[in-house]
Amino acid sequence: MAQEAGYAVHAMSFNYGQRHVLELEQARAIASMAGVAAHSVVDFDLRAIGGSALTDAIEVPKDRVLDEPVPSIPITYVPARNTIFLSFALAWAEVLNAHDIFIGVNALDYSGYPDCRPEYIHSFEAMANLATRAGVEGHHRLAIHTPLIALTKAQIIREGLRLGVDYGLTSSCYDPAPDGRPCGHCDACQLRVRGFREVGVPDPLWQRYGMWT
After folding, report:
1. pTM above 0.85, yes or no
2. Which CATH superfamily is domain 10-208 in?
């Protein structure tokens, strides 16, 4: 979406000790396919902090009824993750003299994460313009773009299909097998399945493992 809007994309991924580290293989493949200007993988280890089923010895919740209200922030929330991600992106943007950061957060088909909400993004953007040389010196104002924030999973899938995304290269699962096979039961898997079914097309990733019926 950023490329279609005319941006030269410098992509950033994060190896932070997540149990679904397989997603980095997909990120590299997608960045290569898309022909981005650069792709950086930043290494740091949130396992030292823990507190999440994605970075600690905590079971990933399975088979939740998606349409039931979320009583509290789920254990798959990684403390301060998007704040850390955006901070690294902000630092790189300063070095590149870039004015725009894109992040794929979503506030509709999500699991109650506080750092996926519009008010969080707006607050970080305001902070970024107070904390950077360009913002303080008035050279330019940095903008954080969230093109997926108000889209349903089905709308996101349709947009990806329109843009030629190979969903067979993607991974959504919080707890995939070593060979990349989705667990089929975590929130991310359930949301992905529902999105593809609403669009009315099979998921090529799930087809690969004989999981799509």
Report:
1. yes
2. HUPs (3.40.50.620)
